[in-house]
Please model this.
Amino acid sequence: TTELGPDAQAGSLQLSAVLRVDDKRRTLELLPVAGGFADGRVPRDQTLTLRLSHPSQAALDRTVQLHPGELGWRADAELPHDHDWLVQLAPADGRWRIRGRLVSGQQAAHLGPALASD
Model:
């Protein structure tokens, strides 16, 4: 079973973000788009946890800490592009979480709530 409270909270905050992969700089950058990111309900000074899950091989899963940056959050990291990644983003307290899928070969993914808001 999965606790859906963080998904519901993300829906209520209407969180939306874009994860961008920069292969040249070997960085991951999270760009806030809307909802609680834009109106200050999600503090911009906190570190966020990005979980990257391989769709079928758990041994290849990764966790990356994204630190506040100029336009959002960022981390130094290099990702293989030979398979998709299931992506989940949450703060340290786990109060909310947003999800998405980084498709093999693509440089960006949209992240949003798994549950629709009321």
Q: What stands out?
A: The CA atoms of residues 80 and 117 lie 33 Å apart.
